[in-house]
Amino acid sequence: MAGKITAMPAPEPTILATSGGYRYGRRTELEFGKLLHFAVELSGVDGRRPSVCHVNTAGGDQRADNARVSEAGGLVGWDVSHLNLFPMPPTDDLRSFVLSHDVVWVGGGSVANLLAVWRVHGLGEVLREAWQAGVVLSGVSAGSICWHVGGTTDSFGPELRVVTDGLALLPYGNGVHYDSEKTRRPAVHAAVASGELPLTYCTDDGAGLLYRGTELVQVVSEVSHGGGYVVQRDESSGTAQEEKLDIRRL
Predict the structure, then answer these.
(1) What is the pTM of this model?
(2) DSSP per residue over the chain, as a string?
(3) 189 tagged catalytic
(4) Which residue of the set 81, 110, 138, 141 is catalytic?
(5) pLDDT tens, residue by residue, 101-137
């Protein structure tokens, strides 16, 4: 079982924040994409099955989702466990549970609900300790925004709003699904221009942001198109300025 092994620490605190990681399977509904494989690679695990902690709080801990992720893990020979907080956590010792894994992968959904539930259970403090200990933190959509100060979200309804109560392991804003949802870019620009969000890193679908410590060191993508961007406020004009970042195709 994943909880009975010693996790392989990354060489320094590592976060891979993405707008991807899953793909449709050939014989299964879900397979892990190159971004999730990259997250495991970043952990440095070698000589045994990687252990991945799947956290689906943003999706309401749906057991059907867990089953699909477990099946995808079986296809690649990984040990996948699920940190369900509904109806209750799987253990009284969340710290040991989380720190026993090589990678924490957080799924998408409602980032506002995710952050609220994590606060109730003190999971944010546990994840910070895991990050500092070398467990690779990663995820998609809500599982990307959560590591940052905040970002734009449809957690409250179809019209995007801004959350600013993220874990703030990374002192930036975060924008996801930048190319596939037409309201994402203007919402990020408005939030940065107003000062509601700080300097903000964004990803098109399929792209990921690799941070070592709190420094963005690389933008990667599991697809042949799309990219990553940085949006920051120009103080002289009070407007948001966007720059496309160099990207490496996995």
Answers:
(1) 0.95
(2) -GGGS-----SS-EEEEES--EE--SSSS-EE-HHHHHHHHHHT--SS--EEEEE-GGGT--HHHHHHHHHHHHHHT-EEEE---SSS-S-S-HHHHHHT-SEEEE--S-HHHHHHHHHHHTHHHHHHHHHHHTPEEEEETHHHHTTSSEEEE-TTSSS-EEE--S--SSSSEEE-STTTSTTHHHHHHHHHHHTSS-SEEEE-TTEEEEEETTEEEEEEESSSS--EEEEEEETTTTEEEEEEEP-EE-
(3) no
(4) 141
(5) 999 999 999 999 999 999 999 999 999 999 999 999 9
